[in-house]
Amino acid sequence: MKVFGNTSKKIFFASWVSLDRAEVNDEANDKSFTQQNPVSNKTRRDFFQPLRNWIDNIQIRDRYFAHRICQSIPAQCPFERDVKLFGKTLFHIPPMCKLNPVYDEVVGLRFRALCYLADECGEDISQYC
Fold this sequence. Notes:
Layout: H1 3-6, H2 21-29, H3 49-56, H4 63-72, E1 81-85, E2 88-93, H5 103-120
Antiparallel strand pairs: 1-2
Helix pairs in contact: 4-5
């Protein structure tokens, strides 16, 4: 039994896409037909990209440097707070670290420093967690 003999010859797509070639060519030749392209990422400038690249390229080869990085970069966002008055919570300040444009790179640098201390130096890193 052949599959081609039992399958449908016409395929129906319920969408805005047209499969008729003549209709597609007419739309391409029509001057009033314009397609709006979203702004591509190539035209947008990322001013923090050189700083991100610099942070990503920092090599950790010294245990004192790794300790200094782990001490200076906190494990959790220090700005998150519950403002309380007489034991009742008035409001909550959310963590704003994600607003930092180089947050992921800084956290990655801290992680690389922790990995260096644990893997290469064999030190206990529980004091930084």
